[in-house]
Specification:
The chain has 525 residues and is of the alpha+beta class. It has helices at 6-31, 389-409, 421-427, 434-464, 468-475, 483-496, 506-524; strands spanning 38-42, 46-48, 53-60, 64-65, 71-72, 75-91, 94-106, 112-114, 118-121, 124-127, 131-136, 149-155, 159-161, 166-175, 185-187, 194-198, 203-207, 210-221, 225-229, 233-239, 253-259, 263-268, 276-286, 290-292, 297-307, 323-326, 330-336, 339-351, 356-358, 361-367, 372-378, 381-386.
Length: 525
Amino acid sequence: MVPIHGDQGIQKLLLLILALCTFANANEVEVFSYVPEAKALVSDTEIVAGHMVRLKIRANGDKVVFPKIDEIDGVKVLEEREIVVNRPHYINGVLKKERTIRIYTFAPHHDVTIPSYNVEIDGRTYRTKPIKIKVMPVNAQNTEDSNKFFLHLETNKKSAIIGEPIVITVSLSLKIGTRLSENPIYTRPAFEGFFSEDLGEEKVYIKRDRQITEVKYLLTPHSAGSFSVGPARAKIGVSDRSKLDMFGRAVRTYWVPIASNSVKIDVTKKPQESDLVGRFTIESSLDTNNVKANEPVTLTVKIAGNGTLEGFEFPDFEMDGVTVYSDDAEVRTTLEGNQVKSDYVKSFTFISDHDFTIPARRISAYDTKSKTVKYLETPSYDVHVEGSRGIAAQKSQSRTAGAGKVHSDLKQPQKSMLDTEEGKNISEVQPPPWWMIASAFVLGLLAMYLFQYFLSTKRKRRRAAVKESEALQILYPHTNRSKAVEDMVRTLYAKENGDKTIVIDKAVLKMLVEKYENNLGKRSK
């Protein structure tokens, strides 16, 4: 080092300080300089199948338009969010401070290549560079934590027809000995294009060195198309061993997001129209065929077999002069292996003051094995009501016939009960005047017109006040014919499953029901 002496040394020292300041200022200008660019970054370039990858596209500029990304190399994007970072820059005396980051989260189960994307910044287009992601199978032993936990989704079939049941199984696998500081947070898969419901309780068992938790779902496709089922997602709370308290216990949890694979299912229309899909049998029974007036008669209908009966409604009975009540159907769905079995029981109660006949009913089921439509029928039942109006009318006719015999006997001079005061009164009755007969005729016509009017009004009101359960049964077979029908069926199912926020548009519902109920009536005959 050269020693500094006198004024010359001071000058050199000042020059050195000035040079350092100039260098620092130059670096500062470089750090905060405004450079429009688009750059793609990923959280990891090597992951275990099912673990999340976060793609960040970073753009410098005031006005940024990012690409719309629904999937990356065939893998569905699960989340998308945006972050704006304030980074002050001056250019031509104008302050520029926007840096926008768009984050896309996905969970690949195979090697993927993130393509190059176009990003528009302040009216100009910039391209990101492609990135390759290496995905290792969950049983890989050469990666730390690779097989501690993962999710897997599988289905019992990858193609079906509308109405055919599909079983989905989601498995959460944890390696025995894995320390979790919190219970996993599970998110069920997306089931777009299907009616779905949980199938029984979750099942937990040990398989080799792993604890498996299984959840099963029953899917019923309601429209044709190609649908992607999944993925299921979970967050695993793992103890952070780098943060320990004085007793050696972890005081911090870090969450590892994971996702299952997705399965593509192709759904086609039914080759033939039918009320059900599967192989079923039907039974019906009446508790009695002989009752007193206004006493109830109960008809019980039972349907059982292979297939799903969830959402099915047996046709109601509408009978003039007979009051009909029905309860909600009891449906039980079980799983034997991967075969869905269902039992359906529904009761109808009939009340009347005269004899009546419960009509026969017929429903159809498309058998996927024989590929034919089979019909299930319940017979008609005749019910006799003691003391009914029909019997009273017969007795009245009998009394009228007896009175006629009295008239004929009055002509004969025999001493009998015909000489009583009653017999004399009958013989002395004069026929009514013509105007009374005409008035009675007119009043009869008026009464008949009023009766028909009130009966028609009652039917219209009954049709206008169609039950939502009936509407669902009428509209369901036509789901794939109209977007409006599909939306209404979805809404009715959601409300039936307990969503109290839904309000049904009664006018639209009535219009759809009136459009399609005739078709249903033809099939049910």
